[in-house]
Write a structure and sequence with these properties.
- The chain is an alpha/beta fold.
- The protein contains 16 helices and twelve strands.
- It has two domains: about 10-150 and about 325-340, 3-Layer(aba) Sandwich (Rossmann fold); about 160-315, Rossmann fold (3-Layer(aba) Sandwich).
- Helix content is about 45%, strand content about 15%.
- The strands form three sheets. It has a six-stranded parallel sheet, sandwiched between helices.
- Helix 4 packs parallel to helix 5 (about 115-125) and helix 7 (about 155-165) crosses helix 12 (about 245-255).
- The longest helix is centred in the N-terminal third of the chain and has 17 residues, at about 40-60.
- The protein is globular.
- The two termini are about 15 Å apart.
- GO terms for molecular function: isomerase activity.
């Protein structure tokens, strides 16, 4: 099955995107909109947004493709600033907006921020919504979009490819460590909350060695607030730069447990059966909650109880063997492209 497409890069995960493209064997040359320094702050994000919008506006014929009938689809994913950018420019240029991972919501408009707002805005602008489960479908009951239930998120396909490539987890978890990954806007830019998160990670380090994976934005905040030395002086915390997807999956698949504020991580780890401490007060995803994952609400007692009862959350893997959501999406888009000539 062949569906002609253009891959548009807006600078997200700039440092690791080249590695991702190679690891997943993507041969299509990307259309690069932004190749500057990766955004690591709110001010930079605003500047990035307008730069990308302007570049897409003046290069629209190079960026967007349409068939002979003038029909084109713009596929966007998730809840990032790139998702919102794609929806806006797609609407501006008359493309049909296709939202993958649609229908997720926390029911709290400002938590997480700005992701929840982005999801709600994009939901109103989308023409086709690919939802990763019946819960997400129900959230779009009043939507104008054509809704398709893919059963699970396309993330499960990425995970399956990574596991096949690196043979992650063979022989079980061989080292006694935890992994921490914290990067969400509402966490790292809230000084008080971020301080609590660091204290909780330090608390965990008294019981397990912690491998703290630093996103560029997280590292920038740690350096700005002069907190890096405090973490470096802790012999039970290892600071590592954000790595490629395959490498990260290899790392977390062998961990005793993972501390994260990422919804994608929460979902990936539910498929792997890895106990997960979600560093948030609410999540837009249902995967893992009550089986592999606990929302800690930044409470020390919850963290300690979680570590004390890891066996309760371990080994309940949802697996990656069900029908491919990515293939379902490709088939539907191929059908539409063929019908519209």
């Amino acid at each position: 099955m062949h569906v002609p497409f253009r891959m548009i890069l807006t600078g997200q995960h700039q440092e690791t995107m080249g590695l991702l493209i190679r690891q997943f064997g993507i041969k299509t040359a990307p259309v690069i909109i932004y190749d500057g320094k990766e955004v690591a702050g709110v001010g930079q994000m605003i500047f990035w947004f307008f730069i990308c919008f302007f570049k897409i506006f003046i290069r629209s014929r190079d960026v967007f493709a349409r068939n002979a009938a003038g029909v084109g689809y713009l596929l966007i994913h998730g809840d990032t600033a790139s998702t919102l950018l794609g929806a806006l420019v797609g609407r501006l240029f008359g493309l049909s907006i296709v939202h993958v991972e649609a229908g997720l919501c926390s029911k709290r408009i400002f938590d997480p921020f700005p992701e929840e707002i982005i999801r709600r805005v994009v939901a109103k602008m989308s023409d086709i919504a690919f939802c990763p489960g019946s819960w997400a479908v129900a959230n779009l009951a009043t939507s104008r979009s054509f809704v398709v239930n893919t059963g699970r998120n396309t993330l499960v396909d990425s995970l399956a490819i990574a596991l096949e490539s690196i043979k992650a987890g063979e022989g079980g978890r061989i080292d006694n460590y935890a992994v921490a990954s914290v990067h969400r806007t509402e966490n790292i830019f809230n000084k008080k909350r971020f301080s609590v998160i660091l204290e909780l990670i330090e608390e965990v380090s008294r019981q397990r060695h912690v491998v703290f994976v630093l996103h560029p934005s997280t590292q920038r905040i740690l350096e700005k607030r002069r907190l890096m030395s405090r973490l470096r002086l802790n012999p039970n915390i290892s600071l590592v730069a954000r790595m490629g997807y395959f490498e990260f999956i290899g790392l977390v698949s062998r961990a005793d447990f993972v501390i994260t504020d990422g919804g994608g991580n929460q979902e990936e780890l539910s498929y792997l059966g890895i106990p997960t401490l979600v560093m948030r007060t609410v999540t837009e995803r249902s995967e893992g909650i009550g089986s592999t994952a606990v929302i800690c609400c930044f409470e020390r007692a919850v963290v300690n109880n979680f570590i004390a009862s890891l066996d309760k959350f371990s080994g309940k893997a949802e697996g990656t063997s069900l029908p491919s959501p990515s293939r379902m999406i490709a088939v539907e888009l191929k059908r539409r492209v063929d019908v519209n000539g």
